Amino acid sequence: xxxxxxxxxxxxxxxxxxxxxxxxxxxxxxxxxxxxxxxxxxxxxxxxxxxxxxxxxxxxxxxxxxxxxxxxxxxxxxxxxxxxxxxxxxxxxxxxxxxxxxxxxxxxxxxxxxxxxxxxxxxxxxxxxxxxxxxxxxxxxxxxxxxxxxxxxxxxxxxxx
Length: 161
Ligand code: ZN
Hints:
By secondary structure, this protein is of the alpha+beta class.
């Protein structure tokens, strides 16, 4: 029996809603006062600029995570989702998760996002960006910048090398 709504169509709709909602009302947006680690990232192809701020507590948990920046709806929505997904996650696990997510979105690696670390329907919806290859770097920018922030990297992270 045929499904009335093809699976990929409903996922596209979830993707569209995810981007609109997070871009309109980004979570954890703004420069915080007391977050010790910082990095800045740019996506020159689109003009997206994101700054990521975070703090790690004595148990290696990312207890605070914020961003600010300007860019397209996808870059802002993805950054909002990044902060809400990774807050209160162990630093090592967050790092593993972000690598699996970047690999998945970039399609350099067919492996799935590591859902044993974080199981998020919103992240599944974010995978909808793969239908728009030219926008994938908009989506990965904040996650790459997060990795740089963990290193407190004062060089600007760029999606282009
Ligand atoms: Zn963009």
